TrEMBL record:
Residue ranges constituting the TM2 domain according to the UniProt record: 183-227
Swiss-Prot/TrEMBL keywords: Glycoprotein, Membrane, Signal, Transmembrane, Transmembrane helix
Species name: Parnassius mnemosyne (clouded apollo)
PANTHER family: BETA-AMYLOID BINDING PROTEIN-RELATED, TM2 DOMAIN-CONTAINING PROTEIN 3
Family recorded in the similarity comment: Belongs to the TM2 family.
Record-level GO cellular component terms: membrane
Protein name, UniProt field: TM2 domain-containing protein
Compartment annotation: Membrane
Membrane topology: Multi-pass membrane protein
Length: 244
């Protein structure tokens, strides 16, 4: 009969085993991190030594939007901001057309002279028309408030516009934004399911929607009033946005 020898494991053996597991885990993690660092360094080197062979520094960001190498070469006079810089004396007559002296920025490849004139209206960038610049829209104001609310935001002149001063400026614009609420959908809900408060729920007016639901649309009166208010755009979304 085979004799079974009992296996004895001491606390010391357990402690050594735990230490071995910890060291093995640390070793595997270090190897994985080293491999990741190696791959990231290789990819970074590939990007820096790509076919174009151009490294963009902080002052050369404009090259991402301008022709420099291995691209179709345009005429220098056809380039716009940020590929060129245009200067004009501020003593020009406002509203009149005058010549701006434009110079192509370094490292940009183009055909023709890199110094040329452009004819544009004498005005500062903040005096451009609203379709000639784009502004950052904010969604934290009430577009349906009376009187109309305005807020300050940053605006940037379009690249093809030539003007005096800074191309990015502050402007006070009307609070006008939308969250995707459709006027037609709200009106249909008011005319069909308005007695159950569906139009109010759709617009985000939850308390009024619950009131209409349990009062059967105010016995029909509230339903007709809301349909009229939505029809004339007096009742809008609860978040203060506009219909689309």
């Amino acid at each position: 009969m085979t004799r079974v020898i009992p296996l004895r494991i001491t606390i010391r053996d357990c402690f050594v085993l735990i230490l071995l597991l910890i060291f093995n885990t640390i070793h595997v993690t270090d190897m994985a991190n080293n491999n990741m660092d190696l791959h990231s360094k290789e990819s970074k080197l590939k990007e820096e030594s790509g076919d174009k062979g151009v490294n963009f520094s902080g002052n050369d960001e404009y090259l991402k939007s301008c022709p420099f190498v291995d691209q179709e070469v345009p005429d220098c006079a056809a380039l716009n901001y940020p590929c060129i810089t245009c200067d004009r004396s501020i003593d020009c007559v406002y509203g009149s057309f005058c010549n701006y002296t434009c110079v192509v920025k370094p490292k940009i490849i183009c055909n023709g002279s890199k110094t040329f004139n452009k004819t544009a209206m004498c005005r500062f960038c903040y005096q451009t028309e609203k379709w000639e610049h784009r502004c950052d829209q904010k969604a934290n104001c009430n577009s349906l408030a009376s009187p109309t609310k305005f807020y300050l935001t940053n605006c940037t002149v379009s690249d093809e516009i030539v003007c005096l001063g800074k191309r990015r400026f502050l402007k006070k614009i009307r609070c006008s934004w939308t969250a995707g609420t459709r006027w037609g959908t709200a009106l249909i809900l008011a005319l069909t399911l308005g007695g159950f408060g569906a139009d109010r729920f759709y617009l985000g007016h939850w308390q009024e929607g619950i009131g209409k639901l349990f009062s059967f649309g105010g016995l029909g009166v509230w339903t007709l009033v809301d349909a009229l208010l939505i029809g004339i755009h007096h009742l809008g979304p609860a978040d203060g946005s506009l219909y689309i």
